[in-house]
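ok so heres the complex, two chains, lmk if somethin looks off
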Amino acid sequence: MQAFLDIFDIYLLEAVINGILLGGVLALLALGLNLIFGVIDVTWICYAELVMIGMYAMYFIVQYYGLSYFIAAPFTILLVAILGAALHYLVIAPLLTAPPINQLLATGGVLFVLQSFATVAFGIDFRNLGIRLPVLAFGDMNFSYARLLSFLAALVGMVAVYLFMTRTFTGTAIRAISQDRQIMALMGVDTKRMYLITSALGGALAGLAACLLVLQYDVHPFVGLSFGPITFLICVLGGLGNFIGGFIAAFVFAEIISLGGLFSDLEWGYVLAFAFFIVMMFIRPAGLLARRR
Amino acid sequence: MLELRSVNAGYGTFQALFDVDLDVKAGEAVGVIGPNGAGKTTLMRVISGLIRPSRGSIRMEGVDVVATPPHKIVSLGIAHVPENRRLFPQLTVDDNLKMGAFMKEARGHYGERLEVVFDLFPRLKERRNQMAGTMSGGEQQMCAIGRALMSNPKLLLLDEPSAGLAPVVVQQVFELVKRIRARGLTVLIVEQNVQQVLRVVDRAYLIEAGTIRASGTSAEMLASDTVKEAYLGV
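and the predicted structre for the whole thing:
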């Protein structure tokens, strides 16, 4: 009996830690989406597809051109940042004053364009970097290096965004825009330019997420579906546009998935997480930390 | 310094200003008085570029304000303290002041300007890490004026600085306007509180239904029958 409990605790601890590691990457994904929503008041339905394009970029730079992972990563982040700015400039900016449903439909359209583009251009094969990172054994627990690395990189990315948003003039202006759009011109702020910078930043976060996810998952045109919906649920659970709420919600979700997976199959973890989401929507429809208006 | 010539402006099909002529000379304090809905706020908004005139010219030290993009107008030396203060309620006092120094020309002097503002409003220094939205109305008005001063403006536009404040605080706000003037700033101030504002300014314009009805020195305005009957209740 005592031996059983010891092993049980080790597994529990392993699942908790894996949940934290998963939460880091989910929080990074949620931050990008929240940033766009909080500042521009637009939801990028195609956010996960930007990540998908970034994963393909990693795949081609590493596998096709044979460059190292660490050279490919900055290129990918830059590429997806440009893609984010282009998405804003070409699709969102002309629709800024349009009803929200039109904006949703337009970015939803971009989702299908990107999926179809990837299918035509890259085919439907599952591809991977061919990098297999070792597993770290710590006591009786096993952690994948890929997850550990992703967690740390996601944390660094989030801290960098936090410093940018709180320490710089531009970051402060980005936070201010969501509180009072009309008077930004009085501060000498060109809102159009701020929206472009924010979109590029959102894209860069999607690019960073792509660099990290490509270590753990194969890339194919529909890979966005495996983490797009959960990113949206995290943002909604945390209160759309609320950075801290999204951060907490990401870890809550990740722990439910990880611990749920411990007691039965991994799929049940997801079932529990989504069930939790539905219940929470009845209890706190505006999110864990609803944005105060 | 500031020169408006036959300015017409409005919102959509509603016209709020009709052929307004107005001058502010360097070092002056000028008041704009008039009833609710006369177009006082529109006048301020059209000067700072929040709305564009449909016709007419606005010049700041000879520069065409109408041809300047709205976010560049603050660089001409015009700072606007909008009606109802419009602070960023969920930013700290520090961050609100930082936004006032956003433009490139002001960033380099951020530290000095902060000292000037804290010297003028010691209360803001005590509250620098507090969310602006949680302060009292008077403190928020200080913060709004402080934010405008961060850009080191030549001309300060004040829109109803006494609105919604307790009488004692209103007194303090007008004292502040005097102190700001003493620092050599030119001030254009819109007020419903006619008696108070005429004690602070050199000259004033009376605006009604979007047109300038009268203008003159404060003494002339105080003595004028139109002003007396309608606004001073004498």
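quick notes: Residues 17-117+144-283 of chain A form one domain. thats all i got rn
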